[in-house]
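Tutorial sheet, problem 5. The two components below are modelled jointly, 420 residues in total.
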Amino acid sequence: MGKKGIEIMVGVFVLMGMLGLAFLALKAANLGSVTGGDTYSLSARFDNVGGLKARAPVRSAGVLVGRVDSIELDPATFQGVVTLDIDKRYQFPKDTAAKILTSGLLGDQYIGLVPGGDDKNLVDGEAVAQTQSAVVLENLIGQFMTGRAESSGAAASEPAQ
Amino acid sequence: MNAVARIGVIALEQFRGWGHAVFFLLDLLRAVPASLSRFGLVVAQIHAIGVRSLVIIMASGLAVGFVLALQMYYALVTYGAAESLGLIVNLSLVRELSPVVTALLFAGRAGTSLTAEIGLMKAGEQIAAMEMMAIDPKSRVLAPRLLAGIVSMPILCVLFSAVGIIGAWSVAVLLIGVDAGNFWSIMQTQVDVWRDVGNGLVKACVFGVICTVVALYQGYETEATPEGVAYATTRTVVISSLWILGMDFVLTAMMFSTP
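Model answer (structure tokens):
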């Protein structure tokens, strides 16, 4: 095979490699659906962020509108401060609520935005005022147990009177 | 010489070999710019090493994809999780199987051919003749092969993954009847480009360097006899494979230990 033939084969080889990489990145991984393009950031404070992680989805009405950028602890108020990157196409009213929800029963946690009715929209850097923290399973079980204990304790103490 | 002294001799010989190999690698790296100026040599080596390995890599990728799909289906359907078949196959291939299997096949096919070629050049005193003519054999002969190996391995790994996923798709969707939409969509939401595909590519690059350097070193340091060349060829495959599997564990622990 002449020199030109070899160069053509190597060029085809490298091209196949790039096509394979593009196939893997777009069709077999999440490159296409990550909100590429412009985003603006909002912040939200929670008493308990539960199992929320960075790059968790932010959804409104179930549709992906952004990603969680970072989660930090505010040392002054001991609240979790979550920074969200929201796609610029979606604007939310100032009285939007942010809740930490779980996909499925025991799945990953994500942030759900429930829009309010305000005329003005949240701008870049603003904080979401209303938040609802994650449901912690242990606290729920603890409440259930103390509730049962109180009601059975009340029933047991009545015949004694 | 008593047994303890013999162990000491063997250990010191091993360390000396490793040190020599590191200096060999540094010499090769120093010779790389000179070989880049004769880019035709690198292209010819990419053809010999990469393009010639395409058939075995893609055939193996297809076969591994088929088998993965079948085995994972029978494991997942017990838990009603057959829809995640695409995700499982993709992650297994892209994170682990592609870099490792491609590297093992690469060591077997391209590594042995490199070792045999360099060994025979050494045995036929061609390397010595080049040095006598003031041609640096490292930049003319060895560095192009190193660059070709480093370039070819990631490309081959990517092709292995891609063909494997397509093979798994054909078995899962066409043969078994898993839902095609779920096959792709669950994969697309859960596989992260940078963490999974990117880390797999980093592994492939590391394995490419390991295979090529071991092959070139064994060829360069072989005894100048036919038996020596044959011995060096088998040593290439064994040493490359052990290093690949060892480095795979280290890299996996570094890359994937935190969720």
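Marking note: The CA atoms of residues 42 and 97 of chain A lie 12 Å apart. Full credit if you identified this.
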